[in-house]
Amino acid sequence: MTIDITAACILEPGGPFTLREVQLAEPGPGEVLIEIRGMGLCHTDIAARFGLPAPMVLGHEGSGVVAAVGPEVSRVAVGDHVAVSFASCGECAQCRRDQPAYCVRFAELNYGGGLRADGTTPIQADGQNVASAFFGQSSFASHALAAERNVVKVDPSVPFEVVGPLGCGLQTGAGAVMNSLDCRPGESILITGAGPVGLAAVMAAKERGLTTIIVSDLDAQRRGLAEELGATATIDPTAGGLAEQVRGIIPDGVDYAFDNTGVPQVLQDAVGAIAPLGTLGFVGVPQDMAATFELPIVPAMVTGLTVRGITEGDSDPATFIPYLIELYRAGKFPVDRLISSFPFEEIEQAVKAQAAGEAVKVVLVRS
């Protein structure tokens, strides 16, 4: 059995989002059907338009209301408000260690061909398979199907447009600081890139009590927003060398550098800004997926440098998303400052607004 839904489809690789009626499978064992109300728009969604076979339905920062549950579902019920996050198997060694971001099936379950865990396609259109189950959800739609494991029950008083982005980008930035790097009060950090992920990292660093929070970004407005959210200093990377500017603020260098630009040269420059026994963490996806950056072996060795790749901020969504919501409600994680809301029907205009820098974090909403 299927239900008719509306989805924003990509009909050809790299093409625009087009709203059309499609058919979504009913929830099977361990699955949840969500009426989607909020959808964060992420750079990954834009890039994936070229990666999956068309037609496809993307979207991976969904929030909404549980509309139905399949057999064996026990953690959520019809009517619950939920965030929908990334998929994981729940069975591998990393999942058993509460590290689902490093699930051995992460690639397969989140962007591996648009299939469910059982190898079927949840969405069809006119009898044709549609690549979906993107990040275990494909939430650019009126309804989405997800495994119970990647659905997180949330406080119904929190707006859907705030909940949605917590499923990926914002938990990645905050989690990088709080989980992956485990920054401590009194320490220092350089954050390269003041997009949603970088600004979430700023808010997390302020909450953790770091005394020096330096943000580097090309855009003066983004730098200003970073200062409002907790950055103690900002850098225009066109005004001089990154390492030199950082050391002009903190001569010994920073304890941590966190990159979310994915630009190899920025990562190389950040290494020169790090203090002995410091750590470079990075989440930015490069334009060239085969990109590398040079690491000077002797300087890295004698300074005890740690280089740390990060996925999803080392987050376990079941516990970390509710924690971020607690911070938001306490005024300590004001993610609403980043958000510009657009009606779901205006998804293409929203894509253009985000690409033009007119919005920091776009969230599509359905009433």
Automatic annotation (TrEMBL):
Enoyl reductase (ER) domain span: 14-364
UniProt keyword Transport, yes or no: no
Cofactor(s) listed in the protein's UniProt record: Zn(2+)
Pfam families: ADH_N, ADH_zinc_N
Keywords: Metal-binding, Oxidoreductase, Zinc
PANTHER family: GROES-LIKE ZINC-BINDING ALCOHOL DEHYDROGENASE FAMILY PROTEIN, NAD-DEPENDENT ALCOHOL DEHYDROGENASE
Family indicated by similarity: Belongs to the zinc-containing alcohol dehydrogenase family.
UniProt-recorded name of the protein: Aryl-alcohol dehydrogenase
Source species of the chain: Gordonia paraffinivorans NBRC 108238
